[in-house]
Amino acid sequence: MPLRVLVVDDETDLRELLSLEIESEFAAEVRQASSGNEAAKLIADSSILIDAVICDYSMPDGNGSVVQKALLNSRPGVPFVLCSANSIENCPGVDAKTLFSQITKPDILAPLREIFERLKAASHLKSTEEIRWVSIPIGMMNQFNIVPVDTFVKLGETQNQLVMKKGEVMSVSLISRCTQKGASRVLVKAQDAVFISEALLRDWSLFWRAKQAPSQKQTLVWGQNAVSALKEMVDLIGVTPEVQSLVKKSTEFMAQNMALSPDTNSWFSQLIFNPDSYFTGHSIVVGQIAGVFANILGWGLPSTLMKFAAAGMLHDMTINSSTLNRLQILDGAGAGELPDNLTQIEKAYLRMHPLQAAEIVKQFSELPAEVDVIVREHHECPDGSGFPSSLHGDQIHPLSMVFIIAHRVVSDRFARGEKSTPLAVLEGFPESYLVGRFGDIVKDLKNHLCKS
Ligand SMILES: [Fe+2]
Ligand SMILES: [Fe+2]
Predict the structure, then answer these.
(1) What is the DSSP letter of 270?
(2) CATH of the domain at 57
(3) What's the CA-to-centroid distance between 326 and ligand 1, angstroms?
(4) How much is the pTM?
(5) What tens digit of pLDDT does each residue of 35-57 get?
(6) How many whole angstroms from 315 Cα to the centroid of ligand 1?
(7) Which domain holds residue 240?
(8) Residue 69 has what pLDDT?
(9) 91 C-alpha vs ligand 2 centroid, how far in Å?
(10) Which residues of 382-396 are buried (b: 16+ CB within 10 A; e: fewer)?
(11) Overall number of domains in the chain
């Protein structure tokens, strides 16, 4: 359904131009008013549908503050965009706190696109006809004692059924019944997904408050749930403050755990080949092994471990699930050559995923610097055969080198069979990994693992 926008301006030419632009560029329905008082009358008429108001400030018959007040009185949730040459301090009566956005005249057209994207997102979340769903692993629900949000299962293409209500005691038998019927995921409303992340963090922090280190298996399961929820949330609601908080706290937990679980052999034993959880398990274990390698190399400052934990969770964030099964072959190959069973479009898409993930990482303002660099370079190879930038050896950032080696160790382990050890996998690395700084790192790791 198109957005219905009320445009208010006393200058006819400007009002017409703005309306034309909104109608043609954003396929919105526009209604016009030439004064604040005329707009206030339209707003008070409940038979007129209005999703947003774009309004001038200085008008002879009722200024912008009259329109904003009318909106706050009768339609408090409807966004108000101020469109004026004046700064907000020079618009007496306007409430800056409830302002959705401001466009400064005469540069009106450029900021409109961003405003319309935000308006569309806001109207999506409010819409009752168009509920957006986040699917989460059913196993995640086992982590809670109390159901954190209303939880649904998919009945058909368009129908979902409520199975657990927010605030109820968690029913383990219900979850196992669903699992027995083959349901591996449940659905929650997109706007509720943040409560899941809050509940996850609350439950996890109990471990640390009790000064009880979680086992590797508990870390892996919790981390997989966090990564899975994160991927869905970033796709659907973007990098919101709640998503940022989940990433930051999960990263801290994962980094704390690296120092407590230094045994790479036992991390290998946690890696069970399962196509359904390959992406999430791989993400956590690569991050943890990179952190353990950093400790071995004497690079294990808490801030560095945070970088590896975050890079682990986020580096394959933008790969869609239908490509994931085939990506196992790519990760197994380890090098930049993409497998032949992918189409040209899939190959192009995969070559882009480190760049796309790095762009998302940049939006997480509270993560340490260089996480985006590690994510961008995680498929580069020392011989220049990697992607997306075909970097050679020492052109690659030293932190990325450790991450690339950990990534290859984890991926090659599947190719070599479940009984292989990290040392055996490192010994099978190609020649190109044995020269320059890459070679020094691989040699140090092999020496340490030989002795342990
Ligand atoms: Fe990747
Ligand atoms: Fe990966």
Answers:
(1) H
(2) 3.40.50.2300
(3) 12
(4) 0.64
(5) 999 999 999 887 788 888 999 99
(6) 6
(7) 213-451
(8) 93
(9) 52
(10) bbeebbbeebbbeeb
(11) 3
